[in-house]
Specification:
Blueprint: E1 2-5, E2 21-24, H1 25-30, H2 32-39, E3 47-50, H3 61-71, E4 75-76, H4 85-101, E5 108-111, H5 118-130, E6 134-139, H6 143-149, H7 157-170, E7 178-181, H8 190-193, H9 196-201, E8 202-207, H10 209-215, H11 243-259
Parallel strand pairs: 1-8, 2-3, 3-4, 4-5, 5-6, 6-7, 7-8
């Protein structure tokens, strides 16, 4: 399993500590510094273009296409609607049709199922499995806790996604690569790596939590897993240039890298 590091704008160099690069369309449209960072990445870098829904800052379709044309990411997340499986499916269909019309269907599609109930979320997920133009499925830290455990406000993310993963595994629904959007507890991912199905289908995860925890004095190497809600101005903050938080950020990234390694003895 690979992962993405998502730092504040002042610390974009920390993205290089991850395996892939996660580009937030709303930041790309607002920040020249952010644009330059992504446009100067090597051709070998894998870039995922996010639509902003998970940050409650969804960009419109035109903006997403403008960014796609300039950035040329490896994959894009069509606009999903939190809690609404029908609109999410409709949006994805029309978005892909436009990709084809504009000759951009060489970019892979990363689909994030939604639903206000477990049944609706599963319907949305199963629909994505049947569409051959959808390459990867996103496991939301917002939709899944609500649909499976009626939890909100970033609560029970790990527990809900473990529950969801188990249901998918038992019902033989692990058929496309999965990406876990954000995190609640960094201990979540070892659970997937400890089973054959997890190592086969759990592709990646992104989060700002490696850095945000360090900014709050939490070092995962020492079992400090308290989750502090990410503030709305996170991207405008800065990791202090001081050895202690810098070491904690490095420790947290190393902890995550070790926990998702696929060669862990079983």
């Amino acid at each position: 399993m690979e992962f993405y590091v998502i730092p504040p704008l002042a610390n974009l160099e920390l993205m290089h500590e991850g395996d892939r690069y996660f580009c937030l369309a709303q930041l790309y449209a607002q920040s020249e510094e952010y644009q330059k960072f992504f446009l100067n990445l090597p051709d070998t870098a894998w870039v995922t273009l996010d639509n902003g829904a998970g940050d409650h800052d969804l960009v419109n379709e035109d903006t997403l296409f403008e960014v796609m044309k300039e950035l040329k990411p490896n994959e894009v997340i069509p606009p999903d609607v939190i809690g609404n499986h029908k609109r999410t499916i409709t949006n994805a269909q029309s978005f892909y049709e436009r990709m084809v019309e504009e000759g951009m269907d060489d970019i892979e599609v990363f689909f994030c199922p939604q639903g206000d109930t477990q049944q609706h979320w599963l319907e949305c997920y199963k629909w994505a499995l049947e569409e051959d133009w959808i390459d990867t499925i996103g496991m939301s830290k917002i939709a899944i806790p609500w649909a499976f455990l009626q939890a909100d406000k970033d609560e029970a993310i790990m527990e809900a996604r473990h529950n969801c993963f188990n249901i998918l595994k038992v019902n033989h629904l692990l058929k496309k690569p999965l990406h876990f959007l954000g995190m609640g507890d960094p201990r979540e991912f070892k659970y997937y790596m400890d089973c054959v199905e997890g190592r086969a289908w759990v592709r990646s995860s992104d989060s700002c939590n490696t850095v945000w925890s360090a900014m709050n004095g939490l070092d995962w190497q020492y079992g400090q897993f308290e989750r502090i809600p990410t503030p709305k101005d996170y991207f405008q903050r800065e990791l202090p240039h001081h050895p202690i938080p810098e070491v904690m950020a490095a420790d947290n990234i190393e902890y995550l890298r070790d926990s998702v390694a696929e060669d862990i003895p079983k």
